[in-house]
Amino acid sequence: MASPNDITVLVISPNSRSERRLQPSWSLDQLRTKLEPITGIPASSQRLAITLPSGQQQALDHLSDSTPVSQVNLRDYAELHVIDSRPAGLRENYTDVSAVPKYEMPKDEYETRTDSVLAWKKAQKLGRFDPNAPDIEEQKIRAVQREVDERGIVVGCRCRLLPESDSRRGIVRHVGNVPEIPGLGAWIGVALDEPTGKNDGSVNGTRYFDCPSKHGVFVRPERVEVGDFPPVDEFEDD
């Protein structure tokens, strides 16, 4: 039962952090016993230390187990640090959930549930459940192709990449789909004059054109301007 004389402290351990009320009449041995279910650290393996609101720190290891809490320099809202003295291999790690078995619902069972995100998408006709989805995708593909046609992008033409601050130039080597890259419609593969690209004309093992390593790049049509853009001569006079 709480008492007006209780001391409110913040108990901190490697796996927990909580506010607790301590009775001044408890011995340090009793305190450790009460801290065990809170921190998960056996009483015999606990090392105690306090940090007062003023910032002053004090270890309690030198005090006997029978020392009452009232004789410890504890103040309200001090920090009581509970340190685990066991070897690292013997300590429980309550924060690492990688080894915790995880339940994965079978796909067939998930698809039959009525309270899932999938069921909600079906009801709202979103994503692949939208009856107009194929038409929308086709419109996006046609829009990209219009961009290609309007810009006159064809394989073999010289080009520069946009925006103008990019300054890279090269030759268009591919116009078409690249399934390995997310996004509907055509991608433009450019063999750059300088090794400032990302690949050699291949993506994830699929080759779309040949060029030296780091000379290949794939961009969207709106980033390509075709025209008389010869290789940049760094020594050419302005």
Automatic annotation (TrEMBL):
Q: Which SMART domains match?
A: CAP_GLY, UBQ
Q: Which PROSITE patterns match?
A: CAP_GLY_1 (PS00845), CAP_GLY_2 (PS50245), UBIQUITIN_2 (PS50053)
The places in or outside the cell where this protein is found are: Cytoplasm
Keyword Membrane set for record: no
PANTHER family in UniProt? DYNACTIN 1-RELATED MICROTUBULE-BINDING, TUBULIN-FOLDING COFACTOR B
Say which family it is in: Belongs to the TBCB family.
Q: Which UniProt keywords apply?
A: Chaperone, Cytoplasm
One Pfam family linked to the record? Ubiquitin_2
| Record's protein name | CAP Gly-rich domain-containing protein
Q: Respond yes or no to whether keyword Repeat is given for this record.
A: no
User: What are the residue boundaries of the CAP-Gly domain, all occurrences included?
Assistant: 185-220
Concerning SUPFAM superfamilies, the annotation shows:
Cap-Gly domain, Ubiquitin-like
Give GO MF terms, alphabetically: microtubule plus-end binding
Its BP terms in the Gene Ontology are: cytoplasmic microtubule organization
GO cellular component terms, alphabetically, are: cell cortex; microtubule plus-end; nucleus
Q: Which InterPro entries match?
A: CAP-Gly_dom_sf (IPR036859), CAP-Gly_domain (IPR000938), Ubiquitin-like_dom (IPR000626), Ubiquitin-like_domsf (IPR029071)
Occurrences of domain Ubiquitin-like (ranges): 5-89
